[in-house]
Amino acid sequence: MKPYVLPIVAVLSLVFAVSWTLAERPVRKPSEPPEPPPETSRAQTVAGVGLVEPGTENIALSCAVSGLVTSLDVKAGDRVRSGQKLFSVDDRDLVADLAVKRAALSNARAQLAKLEAAPRPEELPPAEAKVAEAKAQLADAEVQMRLIDSVADLRAVRKEDVLRRRLASQAAQARLAQAEKDLALLKAGTWAPDLAIARTQVEQAEAGVRQEEINLDRLTTRAPMDGVILQNKVRLGQFAQCGPLEEPLMIFGGGRELHVRTDVDEEDAWRVKSSAPAVAHVRGNSRSTYPLEFVRFEPYVIPKKSLTGNATERVDTRVLQVIYRFRDRSVPVFNGQQMDVFINVAPPVSGGA
To answer: Are residues 120 and 183 located together in one domain of the fold?
Structure first.
């Protein structure tokens, strides 16, 4: 019996190991998904993946001027009106510049008003007095001239005195003419070219104020139209960088209706017509069906970005994007939500020989 002990023990050990392994093997029961996958009741359909977006598409908002955020007036989900203030950056330097420009404008306007108001009423009496004084001096010179001319015997007066009195009379006439012209110039007011220069200086100062006001307004980002703030990445105290960013400062959506941007593989694109009815199913709830209305085709066929993982799917597949809108404007879906879209298409027509 000794030669058979070891083989018998080995056989018994093998039987025990196999029995224990089979007994301890986990039993995997088939599990059903919590929600059945979406199905279509029509035989001829084209399936596509849809993405909910606003009627204006997603608008990535940025600021016109980079700066430190000092004011934030909205949050994600807020509905805003066109032109409503969203956020602002530091404006202290431009506020100071604007004050300087406004002071320069006030000075230019004051200078123009001074020139337009000329002459001042107080300036006329002194000028008129100078005219009266010049007339009196001329009258006195003429009297002295007549007196010396009335002497019959020229030997009684010196020729030098006669010449001096004639020159004094001519000088008095010249002073009177100058006084009268100064009075006329004063009454005529400011010279037209001087007024034109003053008005140009006022316009230049006004343009400087408008420029600073525009620069100041550019520091505030406003809503481009009526819509909703879909995403907000702006925080008080952060430095807002203008220009295209990898993560936009804000994502904005306008319009009163939601669209579904549907990707249709280029192999099926020729089957889709604008008149073809379509329905959408919410991911995770295939029982919810929403009829769609055709809006437009995107005329450019683009490379496919959302791959399904199917082994037969080529990476270089291109898709036609078809834009639909919900017939019911109050559907309970969110922007950015994925949907399964089924488009009813007519059966292909076979060509004759």
So the answer is: yes
* 351: in domain: no
Residue numbers of the domain that contains 240: 62-89+219-250
138 and 168 in a common domain: yes
Q: 53-104 pLDDT, tens per residue?
A: 999 999 999 999 999 999 999 999 999 999 999 999 999 999 999 999 999 9
> Is residue 74, in this structure, part of any structural domain at all?
yes
Contact 96, 215 (CB under 8 A): no
Q: How many domains does the chain have?
A: 3
Distance CA 336, CA 262 (A): 12
Quote the CA–CA distance of 146 and 206 in Å, as a whole number: 63
b/e sequence 302-330, b meaning 16+ C-beta within 10 Å: eebeeeeeeeeeeeeeebbbbbbbbeeee
Ramachandran assignment for 98, one of left (phi > 0), alpha (psi -120 to 50 degrees), beta (any other): alpha
For residues 11 and 306, the answer to whether their CB atoms sit within 8 Å is: no
Cα 309 to Cα 100, 126, 305, 306, distances in angstroms: 64, 101, 12, 9
Are 129 and 229 in a shared domain? Answer: no
Nearest Cα neighbor of 285 from 38, 49, 31, 33 is: 38
pTM as predicted: 0.66
Where does the chain have alpha helices with state H?
A: 2-24, 92-117, 124-149, 159-188, 192-217, 266-269
Identify the CA nearest to 301 among candidates 258, 342, 263, 246.
Answer: 263
Question: Looking at the structure, do residues 107 and 83 belong to the same domain, yes or no?
Answer: no
- The CATH number covering residue 259 comes to 2.40.30.170
